[in-house]
Structure formats: C-alpha cells, structure tokens
Amino acid sequence: MFGRKKEAPTAQETVDQATAAQAGSPKSGGSAGKGAPTPRRKDQVAARQRPLVPNDRKAAREASRAAMREERLKTRAALDTGDERYLPLRDKGPNRRFVRDVVDARWNVGEFVMIAAAVFVVASFIQNLTVQSFILMAFWALIVLVIVDSIRIRFLLRRRLTEKFGGPNQGDVWYGISRALQLRRFRLPKPQVRRGEKVS
Fold first, then answer.
1. If we measure between CA atoms, which residue out of 109, 111, 100, 176 comes closest to residue 149?
2. For residues 91 and 194, what is the distance between their CA atoms, to the nearest angstrom?
3. Does residue 156 contact residue 148 with C-beta atoms inside 8 Å?
4. Interatomic CA distance for residues 70 and 109, integer angstroms
5. Global confidence as pTM
6. Among the listed residues 129, 171, 137, the one whose alpha carbon sits nearest the alpha carbon of residue 154
7. What's the gap between Cα 124 and its chain centre?
8. Rounded-to-integer distance, Cα 23 and Cα 26, Å
9. How far is 20 from 22, CA to CA, in rounded Å?
10. What pLDDT score does 40 carry?
11. Which of 65, 77, 153, 164 is a good FRET partner for 200, with 20 to 30 A between their CA atoms?
12. For residue 21, what are the CA distances in angstroms to 30, 64, 110, 132, 135?
C-alpha cells in the first residue's frame, strides 16, 4: 500500500514563498538566507508612524514653556543691546537700524509732547483763566511744531535712506517718525548712538 501523497500547496503559500525568496535575493537588496519572514505592510506602516501627541504631555508642555521663556529673554536682551539676531521682526534689518540711529542722534520736538501733556493736565487744576489760556496756547503751539518737525524727519529719512540704500523700504519712514515721538529713555530698541553723533 502506497503512502499518502503530500498535499498540494495552496495559492497563498505559493505567494508567500515567492515573496520571501524575492526579499532574500541579492537583486532586491535583501540579504540572502536571512531566514526571517517578510514583514507585513501593516507592521511596516505602524513602524513608520509617529504619535501626533507626545506620550508625556506635561513634559512636552514644560519644554515648550522653557523654550518660549528663553526666546523672550533673548529678545529682551536684544532690545537693550541691538543684537540683530533676536530683535522683533519690525526692528530687524540694516534699514531700520539706520533709521533708529538717525532719529536718536538728533533732538526731536515730539519727545516733549508727553511732558507738555502732563504739565497741561496739572495746570488745568489752577483756577486762573489767564494761566490756563497761556498753557493751552503753548500746548497747541507745541503740537504745530511737532507736525513741522515730523515733516522734516520724513524728508531727512527719505534722503538719507536713498543715499545709503537706494531708497526706503515700506514702513521705514513712519517707523522713524513714530520713534521720534517717544521719549529717548523709553525707546526700544534702546538708542545706540549719542545725540549729535554723526551717523553714516
């Protein structure tokens, strides 16, 4: 009596064997005879995937806060020293630095507006119409001088920027005028030139 014949391999087994042989062949880039089954597509995809949310959310949040705190400290230091690398975007660039230096090197009438406004508020409590009228006229005269000086700054900046850079970028002139309206000690970034210093 003859022994039982081997059962014919199924179609799926044939495909699996062919895939394993192809993966182990030198042409396919695999290592011949590695003896490991080809990983399933599901396992390959799972190995490539990274979690969108880190496992330790608290540690990730603390790390993010520390990075933001360090960035703020660098920006604050740059506002004091003028370090271009960490300045806010509106203050970056050679044009903006040149505008700041031109404005900081001159006396600007707009610097005294806040002081004059404080004096006007205090003087409004004086019960003397003559004094109040005089202070009011002086205040409005100062406003007119500020407008005239701002126009002068506008022409000055346009001329100096054209000489040095070929022309102002968008917002450069207004940037300088708005800086001229601030008290020198409160300007940020802090002035890097002395009054009367020649800026080139």
1. 109
2. 19
3. no
4. 38
5. 0.67
6. 171
7. 44
8. 8
9. 5
10. 79
11. 77
12. 10, 49, 84, 101, 98
* H/E stretch holding 67: helix 57-81
Whether the bond into 191 is cis, omega within 30 of 0: no
pLDDT digits (tens, 9 = 90+) for 61-119: 888 888 888 888 888 888 888 888 889 999 999 999 999 999 999 999 999 998 888 88
pLDDT of residue 46: 66
**The one-letter amino acid at 184:** R
Question: Which tokens go with 32?
Answer: 């011949």
Task: Pick left, alpha or beta for residue 10 (phi over 0 → left; psi -120 to 50 → alpha; otherwise beta).
Answer: beta
Residues of the chain with pLDDT under 50: 1, 4-6, 8, 11, 15, 23, 25-33
- With both helix axes pointing from N to C terminus, report the angle between 129-165 and 172-180 in degrees, rounded to the nearest 10: 150
Amino acid at residue number 193? V
Q: What is the DSSP string of 3-64?
A: PPPPPPPPHHHHHHHHHHHHHHSGGGTS-TT---PPPPHHHHHHHH---SS-S-HHHHHHHH
